[in-house]
Amino acid sequence: MKNNQGFIGRIILVIIAIIALKYFLDFDLVEWVKSPKAQEIIQPTITFFKTLYAWLDDFIRGLLN
Predict the structure, then answer these.
(1) Residues 32 and 38 sit within 8 Å (Cβ to Cβ)
(2) What integer pLDDT is reported at residue 48 of this predicted model?
(3) Separation of first and last alpha carbons in the chain
(4) How far apart are alpha carbons 38 and 41 in whole angstroms?
(5) Contact 22, 28 (CB under 8 A)
(6) Side-chain half-sphere exposure of 12, counting CA atoms within 13 A
(7) What are the residues whose beta carbons fall under 8 Å from the beta carbon of 28, sequence distance 6 or more?
(8) Number of CB atoms found within 10 A of residue 13's CB
(9) 26 φ, ψ to 5°?
């Protein structure tokens, strides 16, 4: 339980950082994520983690059987 201290503070810090990016640097994170250039980065990453999860799932189920 002691390791979870400050979790809410970290979430608030991330939100403040996103707001500061928008206000001071005029950088909209949501629009960037929706852009085609960002999708070229995000989609392969998501595919990698899905493949990794499927492989680990099959591996663990194989060990348990």
Answers:
(1) yes
(2) 96
(3) 34
(4) 5
(5) yes
(6) 4
(7) 22
(8) 11
(9) 55, 45
Residue 37 tokens read as 């250039």
pLDDT, position 55: 96
Tokens for 19, please give them: 């707001």
Q: Take residue 18 and report the two structure tokens written for it.
A: 């996103």
Per residue in 18-56, pLDDT (tens digit) is 899 888 888 888 888 889 998 998 999 999 999 999 999
SS3 1: coil
Residue 5's pLDDT band, with cuts at 50, 70 and 90, is low
> Does the structure show a pLDDT above 70 at 13?
yes
